[in-house]
Amino acid sequence: MSNYYNIIRDFFLNFGIDLDKFNITYDMFPRKNKSEWGYNFSIETRNDSRILANVKNQYSEFKVLLHETGHGVHSFLQDPNELILNSGINGIVTEGIANLFGSFLHDELFYKSFFDENVEGEFRQMAEYEKLSYLRFIGNIFFDHELYRNDVTSLYNPSHIYAQLFYGRCNL
User: Fold this and answer.
1) pTM score, two decimals?
2) CA–CA–CA angle 20, 24, 30 (5° rounding)
3) Which residues form the signal peptide (predicted)?
4) Could you tell me the mean pLDDT of each successive run of 10 residues in the chain, 172 residues long?
């Protein structure tokens, strides 16, 4: 993992995205009291982005780096004048972009620099399993959609929307 930046940078170059042009700071390695999850913090859109991860020396950890770097790149490529995509960007847009880059973990374009053997079948199976496991997020997407469709004026509103969506008619 000590060469993580070069690997990620070279991969993003496949899309014409030069990470060296962006001020993305990576805090990668475990330390006491550090969260085990990966995060991207856009300090200032188009100017400063930070990635906090807690990776160990495993190939699968590159998914976190690809995903969070997708968030970081997205923060630099946003047009502040584009209101639809930037005014309170919702989870569907931001996670969609980050998930796209994270999904390349199982794509030959990314894994070919790690493995010499014929591993296409194994990576194809892992990608199919992962696609199926994403079905569990459909409810979250519907909830996110309903939050945007409804006027949320109190803490009661999200609870009520959640109850209606997941439990049917509910008198809270």
Assistant:
1) 0.73
2) 120
3) none
4) 92 97 93 85 88 89 94 84 60 82 91 85 85 78 83 84 79 52
